[in-house]
Design goal:
167 residues; mainly alpha; 8 helices
C-alpha cells in the first residue's frame, strides 16, 4: 500500500516543478511578462481532456499488467522525457539555431512550451490511474482505503517539498 502511495510523490514533484519554474524560466528565454499566463492554460485544458480519456481507457484495460499500470508506466516515461526537454530547452534551442545574442530565443521557447504541455499531459495521465490503483488494491475495505489515501496525501506533500527544493 505504501509503495503504491509513493507514486504520488513523483506526480506532485512534477506539478511543483512546473509551478516553480514556468514564469521565471520563460522570462529568462526572453518571453515578455504577459505571455506566461497563456502557457498556464495548458494545465486546466489538458486536465479537462486527458484525465477523463485516461480514466475511461484504464477502467477498460485488459493488460496482463493490470488496468492501471500501463498508464502509470507510460506517464512516468513521458514525465522523464518532458523533464529533459524542459531542463535543456535553452541548449536544444541553441542547437536548433537560436542566437545567443538575441534576447528572445524562439526555438528554446517552443521546446519549453511543448515540454511543459507534455509534462501537464503526463502528470494528468498519472494522477487518475494512481488513485484508482489505490482503490483497486484496497478493495472494499474502508479502513484500508483511508490508510492508503493518508499515505497518498503524505507522499504528495513530500513531492511538493522536493519539487520546490529542486528549483
Amino acid at each position: 500500500m505504501i509503495l503504491v502511495s509513493s507514486i504520488a510523490a513523483g506526480v506532485q514533484f512534477g506539478w511543483a516543478l512546473q509551478l516553480s519554474l514556468l514564469t521565471p524560466y520563460v522570462q529568462q528565454l526572453g518571453v515578455p511578462h504577459k505571455w506566461p499566463s497563456a502557457v498556464w492554460l495548458c494545465g486546466p485544458i489538458s486536465g479537462l481532456v486527458v484525465q477523463p480519456i485516461v480514466g475511461y481507457y484504464s477502467d477498460r484495460c485488459k493488460s496482463r499488467f493490470g488496468r492501471r499500470r500501463p498508464f502509470i508506466v507510460a506517464g512516468v516515461a513521458l514525465v522523464a522525457i518532458t523533464v529533459f526537454l524542459i531542463g535543456y530547452a535553452a541548449d536544444i534551442g541553441v542547437a536548433c539555431g537560436d542566437s545567443l545574442d538575441k534576447l528572445t530565443k524562439s526555438r528554446a521557447v517552443a521546446v519549453f512550451v511543448v515540454g511543459f504541455w507534455m509534462l501537464d499531459v503526463a502528470n494528468n495521465m498519472l494522477q487518475g490511474p494512481c488513485r484508482a490503483l489505490l482503490a483497486d488494491v484496497s478493495g472494499s475495505d474502508n479502513k484500508k482505503m483511508s490508510t492508503a489515501m493518508a499515505w497518498f496525501s503524505f507522499f504528495m506533500a513530500v513531492g511538493n517539498v522536493l519539487g520546490y527544493a529542486a528549483r
